[in-house]
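tool_call predict_complex ligand=nicotinamide-adenine-dinucleotide
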Amino acid sequence: MQILDGQMASQAIRDALKMEVAQLIAEGKKIPHLAAVLVGNHGASETYVGAKVKACAEIGYRSTLIRFEEDISENKLLNEIENLNNDPGVDGILVQLPLPKQVSDEKVINAIQVSKDVDGFHPISIGRMVQGQPSFIPATPHGIMLLLEHYKIDTRGMHAVVIGRSNIVGRPISILLSSNSQPGNCTVTICHSHTHNLKEICLQADLIVAALGKPEFLRADMVKEGVIIIDVGITRVPDPSKKSGFAIKGDVKFDEVSPKCSYITPVPRGVGPMTIAALMKNTLKACQENN
Ligand code: NAD
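tool_result ok
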């Protein structure tokens, strides 16, 4: 069993990006600038945005964190997005989800200019991705593909089972794994909360992407020997022994499942850091294409 170390792979990508920034500076070109929008005070969202802003600083990008109160109106947020769209200094716009209930995620995502859509959630970005055209690929699925690439895992012909069909993880990763690319060229089964016989389907999988948000859901009796496991889940579960009061759990019961795997991502230090690396790559791409 080999651990797919997302922290290490992410660092390698961020180091390469750091060198690209040094090159941009040497050539007197524009430095990438990411604008991150955070609404409210959710602990997990704060952590994710904080990590993204920190990664920008480490690589040498500019970043601006724009914070709004939980009770912001949809119109005000849409106006702010419009301002960022029109700001030539800003290359990438990221709106941390989820948004409060009075604001439509869909309207906000659709308002982001496609050329600045570094999260890759805009319907035009998704459409381009589905057709295999150049586009921004959503950061988490992009990060998973980069991780498979980093470890030179040949996924050709594999049966990949994706558990979860969200627009940000399950659905896009199922499209990427099925595309004519390396990594890719898998035969993909996408499962969700209405899937019958999930265990039987998982037992046929060469590669499983677990993205359902149910801590330690995938157990040893659901996977075959030699399987590759990508655990996307991040759930905070109460743990009085921790200073924070919670522990982070993936969707896979790691201790039980890992002995059966050829490769497995841990949680933390797996898909999470790769998501950040992918976002950073998308931000550089936006800067290069917009300038
Ligand atoms: P979501 O709630 O939008 O989607 C969950 C999906 O799982 C749904 O499609 C649902 O049909 C499916 N599902 C739920 N219960 C199921 C069951 N019993 N059997 C089969 N399918 C089931 O979640 P999401 O936004 O896609 O996130 C999934 C998990 O990944 C969460 O834990 C989230 O925190 C985590 N996440 C991690 C990263 C990262 O960077 N590592 C990024 C995004 C999301």
